[in-house]
Design goal:
The structure is a homodimer.
Chain A (H helix, E strand, L loop, with lengths): L7 H19 L6 H8 L3 H7 L3 H21 L9 H14 L5 H4 L2 H9 L4 H29 L7 H22 L3 H17 L6
Helix pairs in contact in A: 1-2, 1-4, 4-8, 5-8, 5-10, 7-8, 8-9, 9-10
């Protein structure tokens, strides 16, 4: 039964949650406003009260997804570790653990949407680029500190490496979707960790 | 002007070329049969003479794209190098060179389609998985030989590393689409090369 417009915050949130679920399952273009309303349990009038169109919802969903990820990773136990290198490996372990689930639940809304509509929906592309960049940005300080401590003379760039971690994660999702299984994504994260261990040898060892 | 059905091989090829171009630009679902016919310069009758529906064309396009890539890489000069490690770095250099162009021309049809329709079009997913796996497979022998020669005691698996190279490449495309620029993809390939140099130190150095 469609929810009334009495609680606009809950209605908006239901639509954003529906967007995360349905778009990650079938893509942006295949997802209709009717379907999003049905999945959210809200009326079409409520939809258009909150969003001018499906593109506007996708932009808001990209921000909502990014904000959720930011909260999740900021609150993770590995953030408390003293060595920035340990925090990085803690991040990778958490990414690996987050792969334990069904593909539409564990893959990335941003990578999914930008792959499909990068050329046709510039506003969605920008929102996805902003979210991916912001998430990569949360790793730069740890990578830079770990480099200063464990590989001070190396010639690679912390910002570039932070983006590379996201390239590996996004590509791991693509291969997992192809395989219909996340094991290949876990393997890709193992390779990424081996690369980081190679770039950042443990000076305590 | 629509081409007549007199040359079925050319008609089929025009439709496959159109699929490569249009689907990489706007995705599978957003691409209509009408649009594919217009881009190929063929009639709708000709389309349905060759393909039962858009999904059948997408499956054939995945095979066509994979066959084209197989020919291109098999004929590359780096295949003539004596050391398998050099052939691997030659492959990466070629992938980097192939990034020089517009995003719809240089990105991967398989990764694009599987990201979008992995859950909704199993036949397309399978064709994409087959193509990505086959391409990764062309690297396994060189990786295994390079490992035997340059890192015989290492504990990583050549097949897994071959798949990982494809994860990086697919993720590099996602980040390039987000950025609207292939430079970030070149950076990801540089990181991949640094990883391979770390796994396969040059015993001649």
């Amino acid at each position: 039964m469609p929810r009334t417009a009495r609680d606009p915050v809950a209605t908006r949130r239901s639509l954003l949650d529906a967007a995360l679920r349905v778009i990650r399952e079938k893509g942006f273009v295949a997802t209709s406003v009717d379907e999003l309303c049905a999945a959210a349990g809200v009326s079409k009038g409520a939809f258009f009260h909150h969003f001018t169109d499906k593109e506007a919802l996708a932009v808001a969903a990209a921000e909502y997804f990014s904000d959720g990820a930011a909260e999740l990773f900021a609150a993770a136990p590995h953030r408390e570790l003293a060595d920035p290198r340990d925090r990085l490996f803690g991040y990778l372990a958490m990414r690996r653990a987050l792969l334990d689930g069904a593909l539409p639940d564990v893959t990335c809304l941003l990578g999914t949407m930008v792959q499909e509509v990068y050329d046709t929906h510039p506003a969605v592309r920008e929102a996805c680029a902003f979210g991916i960049g912001a998430h990569a940005g949360t790793l730069v300080a740890d990578i830079a500190s770990a480099k200063a401590r464990h590989a001070p003379t190396a010639d690679w760039d912390p910002e570039s490496l932070a983006l590379h971690t996201q390239a590996v994660i996004q590509g791991a999702f693509v291969l997992a979707k192809a395989a219909g299984d996340t094991r290949v994504a876990v393997d890709a994260l193992d390779h990424l960790e081996r690369y980081l261990r190679c770039l950042l040898p443990d000076i305590r060892a």
